Amino acid sequence: MAHLAQPRFLDEPTARSIADQFGSPVYVYDQAILLANATAALNFPNAYGLTVRYAMKAAPSAAILQLFNNAGLHIDASSGYEVRRAIAAGYAPSAISLSAQELPSDFAKLYELGISINACSLNQLERFGRAFPGRSIGLRFNPGSGSGGNNRTNVGGPASSFGIWHEWIDQAQALVDRYQLTVSRIHTHIGSGSDPAVWQKISVMSLDLVRQFPTVNTLNLGGGYKVARMPNEIATDLQACGEPVAEKFREFAAETGREIHLEIEPGTYLLANAGALLSVVQDIVSTGANGYKFLKLNTGMTELLRPSIYGSQHPIYILQSEATSEICDYMIAGHCCESGDILTPANGDPELLAPRQLPRTQIGDLCVIDGAGAYCAAMTTKHYNSYPEAAEVLLDLNKKPHLIRKRQDAEELWANELPLPS
Ligand SMILES: *Cc1c(COP(=O)(O)O)cnc(C)c1O
Q1: How would you class 45 by CB atoms within 10 Å of its CB: exposed for 0-12, middle for 13-18, buried for 19 or more?
Q2: Tell me, what DSSP letter sits at residue 242?
């Protein structure tokens, strides 16, 4: 499988010095790439104003939230805990919007702090209405079809539970009337890694929802903008994707007199290629003439779960102080006692293995897994086999590494446990 010649932002000396200074496994983020991605998102085409919300579930560490806060991004939170976390990192509640599968039991407190809420089901709308009659709310709809990189990242259509099903608009309207709510925003988010053409189609369907609620002044079109982690993947061109939709907003205004503010909520787009996972090859085994050669890393599903659950592909590099030109086929295994802890699954099929061509590797070589900024540190089998949480490092604009999350001490694994009652 073809690769870029070297990792996006980590060369061997930098990687070696980070591993020496902070240990491994360690996530490394590149500030220059994060800022460039934020700028690209803030330049998303729009007709009547734009708010970019960082979908913080992609990578919620405080330093990353602070970097995006300074860059002018607002927040999309997917749980009450994310709301608290963003506030703890310095975000003003007014910059936080909550769209959650589980409406937090303390949503009333959070709303009173000043966050905005999208009701993501009729039940959520009813609960909000009972608590805050006469107040302002957003409605998240499932527009009836979706698009995602795979079934597990598709969050629109009849097989998806996200949002109020578009055919229940009358029920939603009845609840809005009963509690005299003001619907100020419509929200649709159809999935991660979506096809730009589908995204544009859903955007037009979303404007039809806006038409049915005359008090709406904002349309939130969610995230899902595709990135290319692997060289054969095609990234979304935000300008090309957004311009036809901005035009639809203009047509909508000409027809209705309503100038609708746009919100987008990228997560993957901002983070995916701005992060890498740095590890060490700690063993090499072979399963014989008809088998495979396996590289075993000091990381795995404890830091990177996407290959195991989606069969997702990440560029993988072996960094050596003295590079060899000899190439071998390797499978790459994680360090968990779990046969599914494989970092080289077949594309889109975690049940199958797909060896990678890599330089002949020695124990002790560094391994960099690229495209590991989004849904990696944030989404793992943390603490499985009692491995502590890995450290996170940010490379500043001068490529100087700064620790932004400490590696956990082993004692923290059992700190909340109590002894057997006597
Ligand atoms: C996860 C999520 C996003 C971000 O999706 P990406 O694919 O990471 O861009 C945006 N909005 C909502 C509501 C989400 O749940």
Answers
A1: middle
A2: H
Does the Cβ of 268 fall within 6 Å of ligand 1?
Answer: yes
Do 265 and 64 contact (CB within 8 A), yes or no? no
DSSP letter string, 211-276: HH-TT--EEE----B---SSTTS----HHHHHHHHHHHHHHHHHHHS--PEEEE--SHHHHGGGEE
Q: Is 138 close to ligand 1, i.e. is its CB under 6 Å away? A: no
For residue 267 and ligand 1, the question of a CB distance below 6 A is answered with: yes
Is 12-25+272-408 CATH 2.30.42.10?
Answer: no
Is the Cβ atom of 79 under 6 angstroms away from ligand 1? no
What's 419's DSSP letter?
A: P
C-alpha to C-alpha distance for 75 and 52, rounded to whole angstroms: 8
Q: Using DSSP bridges, classify how beta strands 349-353 and 401-405 pair: parallel, antiparallel or unpaired.
A: unpaired
Q: Which residues are known catalytic residues?
A: 337
Spatial separation of the C-alpha atoms in residues 193 and 189, rounded to whole Å: 11
Q: Ligand 1 pocket check: which of 44, 56, 76, 195 to mutate, most ligand atoms within 8 Å of Cβ? A: 76
Task: Tell me the domain boundaries of the chain.
Answer: 12-25+272-408, 31-266
Atom of ligand 1 nearest to the CA of 99: 13
Ligand 1 nearest atom to the CA of residue 225, by list position: 9
User: From ligand 1's centre to the CA of 240, what distance in Å?
Assistant: 20
pTM of the model: 0.96
What class is the 31-266 domain?
Answer: alpha beta
Residue closest by Cα to atom 3 of ligand 1: 223
Task: Look up residue 346 and give its DSSP letter.
Answer: E
**pLDDT level of residue 195 (50, 70, 90 thresholds):** confident
pLDDT tens per residue across span 125-172: 999 999 999 999 999 999 887 665 555 666 677 888 889 999 999 999
Helix (H) or strand (E) holding 112: helix 107-113
